[in-house]
Write a structure and sequence with these properties.
- The structure holds two protein chains of two kinds.
- Chain A has helices spanning about 1-35, 45-95, 105-135.
- The longest helix of chain A has about 55 residues, at about 45-95.
- In chain A, helix 1 runs parallel beside helix 3 (about 105-135).
- Chain A is built from three helices and no strands.
- By secondary structure, chain A is an all-alpha fold.
- Chain B is α+β, with helices and mostly antiparallel strands.
- Chain B has a domain at about 170-325: Helix Hairpins (Orthogonal Bundle), CATH 1.10.287.1490.
- Chain B is about 60% helix and about 15% strand.
- Chain B has twelve helices and 13 strands.
- In chain B, strand 4 and strand 5 (about 80-85) form a beta hairpin.
- In chain B, helix 3 runs antiparallel to helix 11 (about 425-445), helix 5 (about 140-160) runs antiparallel to helix 10 and helix 10 packs across helix 11.
- Classes of the chains: A mainly alpha, B alpha+beta.
- The interface of A and B includes residues 28, 40, 41 and 42 of A.
Chain lengths: ~140, ~500
């Protein structure tokens, strides 16, 4: 349980925060474009505000890009982790069939592995969903 | 110093200070002007100084009760003359020539009067010599440029702090607020759309239910009319059977059979009646439900309250958006009644001001560096000359005198003990003043031919004073010293010591 919290903190919170900031910055740019299109703001003022916004957007995009890289890396780690769980799980089943492990130990280890596998898959899905959100933009 | 080949300098004064008419001749070497108190020694120094420096105001030179005065100097086979005139308003104006070696810095470096800057500073215990060296090394031009640039930067800074510029600075914030309003507007629109879609779904469902109930109602009606028909048929049948029974004879077999049929018909009628009763109740229930659904449909068709609330909110947000856009429009321009930039775009004026500030900061940086170099070099050369003078004069009691990095005068006693200026004796202050002036002259005015010392010897050790004067004489062609004397006549006289 503790591990899950740590993992979430490592990418989820910054990702959501940057994604939200980027969304707001893009909305601001749209609002500014709209003001210019309706002659509600002059071209020089537009350019001044737009320059600052573009800088902000570029910074956020760069930050998001580096975060995306680390998220992709995390997906690879999780895939390896899941494979490892699967190998351990198969091994446990074999031990159980061959009566090399008692029922209580089998049940406890099986429960732990299932929980770990579910948590890893859940985190992987969350990262994939987050990445889809960016690529969909 | 090589033998001086210069000629004599003749000074003629007419209506200057307390002197009506005076002629003095100075020769290369030491010239001692001897005269009793209040006989015009300082007047001579001031008037002569006014021929090479403009530090003495003309009103301090012309005799108070005269309208016109004159200073004439014969130097190098030429005559240099200045005429002083008092205007009807009481001002004194001056016309004429300056000596060829005139220099505005000479008064501070070569004339030791009680009012001379360096003497005044040291006797007053002031130890900061930055301004003094600035003036002598022309560092003051750099500092004046730096100060002027800084003043302009400050002025532009004050401009940028004015309300119009402050409003412009909050434009990004206004844009953020406008974006928030856009987001709120979109959110409300989405809610309205969803709400309308939900309502349409609801209406379609109710209509569907009404149609279903109506269909069930029609079926029930058909069924009920069939039941009535069946009941009527059974009643007819029973009636026919009753008539048949009355016509039947004694044959018990036939009677019994008819009676059974009658009982069966009655039984069927009872069942039909019950069925009709049940169906009528059902029909009534269906009608009520249809009515309820129609009522619900009527209510729903009026539209839910939620949409009305949302539409009101949307209207409010749209108004706020218009106001915010107007605020943005106002923030980007100066008001039309602005005194300096009426109706101009603030962004243009602002970028122009920022460009100027940037340029001024570059200028300041450039001159700051020049100033630092100039002042560092001036301080170093000045200190070298002070040190040399101290060593050559071998004045007992002092290790060294110098200006530190903050241009503060440091007097080191033997044993490298620092002594505060204000604790020095009057004669020590005077010695240091004269040495600093001589160092300043050698550093910044090496070619200037004069060094004048006015009656600073009252509280001075005569032996040390003349040792000092001998030292000065070796470095300056004309040394002029005033000295108090009660034995001579009232007219100042020059005694020459080659």
């Amino acid at each position: 349980m503790r591990r899950e919290v740590v993992n979430e903190n490592s990418w989820k919170q910054p990702f959501e925060s940057i994604y939200r900031e980027l969304e707001v910055a893009n909305r601001k740019k749209n609002s500014l474009d709209d003001l210019l299109a309706r002659n509600r703001v002059s071209k020089p003022t537009y350019e001044y505000l737009s320059r600052n916004l573009d800088e902000e957007i570029s910074k956020l995009e760069a930050h998001l890009k580096s975060l995306t890289k680390s998220m992709s890396k995390r997906i690879n780690e999780l895939q390896k982790q899941i494979k490892l769980f699967e190998v351990f799980f198969a091994n446990l089943e074999l031990l159980h069939i061959g009566f090399e492990v008692d029922e209580e130990t089998y049940a406890r280890q099986r429960e732990i592995m299932i929980r770990g596998m579910v948590a890893s898959k859940k985190e992987m899905e969350e990262i994939e969903d987050a990445l889809k959100k960016i690529s969909g933009k | 110093m090589p033998a001086d080949t210069r000629g004599n300098i003749i000074l003629e004064l007419e209506n200057i200070g307390c002197l009506r008419r005076l002629r003095l001749e100075f020769k290369p070497g030491i010239n001692i002007i001897k005269a009793p108190n209040a006989s015009g020694k300082t007047t001579i120094v001031r008037s002569f100084s006014s021929m090479f420096s403009d530090k003495i105001p003309p009103s301090h030179i012309l005799a108070l009760d005269e309208l016109k005065g004159r200073i004439r100097v014969y130097y190098g086979e030429k005559i240099y003359e200045k005429v002083f005139r008092r205007t009807p308003s009481g001002h004194v104006i001056v016309q004429g020539d300056m000596l060829p070696f005139a220099d505005p810095r000479a008064f501070d470096a070569c004339v030791a009067l009680a009012e001379t800057d360096i003497v005044h500073r040291i006797t007053g215990g002031n130890v900061i010599f930055r301004r003094y060296l600035e003036n002598l090394s022309y560092g003051n031009y750099y500092s004046a440029l730096i100060e002027a640039s800084q003043e302009l930067v400050n002025e532009y800074g004050r401009k940028l702090a004015s309300p119009s510029f402050r409003n412009f600075e909050i434009l990004p914030l206004l844009l953020t607020e406008l974006t928030d309003l856009h987001m709120r507007r979109d959110e409300i629109r989405q809610k309205i759309e969803n709400s309308k879609k939900n309502q349409e779904d609801k209406l379609r469902k109710i209509k569907l239910k009404i149609a279903e109930k109506n269909s069930a109602l029609s079926q029930e009606k058909v069924l009920l009319s069939q039941l009535y028909r069946d009941l009527s048929f059974e009643k007819e049948r029973e009636k026919s059977l009753q008539e048949l029974l009355s016509m039947a004879g004694e044959s018990s077999k036939i009677v019994s059979s008819i009676k059974i049929s009658i009982a069966s018909s009655q039984d069927r009628q009872t069942r039909l009646k019950n069925e009709i009763k049940t169906r009528r109740c059902l029909l009534k229930e269906l009608r009520r439900k249809v009515e309820d659904l129609r009522e619900k449909l009527r209510r729903e068709e009026k539209g839910p309250l939620e949409i009305k609330d949302l539409e009101e909110k949307l209207e409010k947000v749209n108004k706020m958006i218009i106001l915010k856009e107007e605020e943005i429009q106002r923030a980007e321009r100066f008001p039309s009644d602005d005194a300096e930039y009426p109706g101009k775009l603030i962004v243009d004026v602002r970028s122009e001001i920022l460009r100027k500030i940037e340029w001024l900061e570059m200028v300041m940086g450039y001159f700051q560096e020049k100033y630092m170099r100039c002042m560092t070099s001036a301080r170093r050369r000045f200190n070298d000359n002070v040190t040399r003078a101290f060593h050559e004069l071998n004045l007992g009691g002092f290790e060294n005198v110098f200006l530190d990095q903050d241009f503060s005068l440091q007097v080191m006693r033997e044993g490298n003990i620092r002594q505060p200026i204000e604790t020095l004796s009057a004669s020590e202050k005077l010695t240091i003043s004269l040495l600093l002036m001589l160092a300043a002259k050698e550093t910044f005015l090496p070619e200037f031919p004069l060094f004048i010392v006015d009656e600073l010897t009252l509280s001075y050790d005569p032996e040390r004073f003349w040792r000092l004067m001998e030292y000065v004489k070796r470095r300056v062609p004309y040394l002029i010293v005033t000295s108090l004397s009660s034995s001579l006549s009232d007219t100042p006289k020059v005694i020459h010591k080659p």
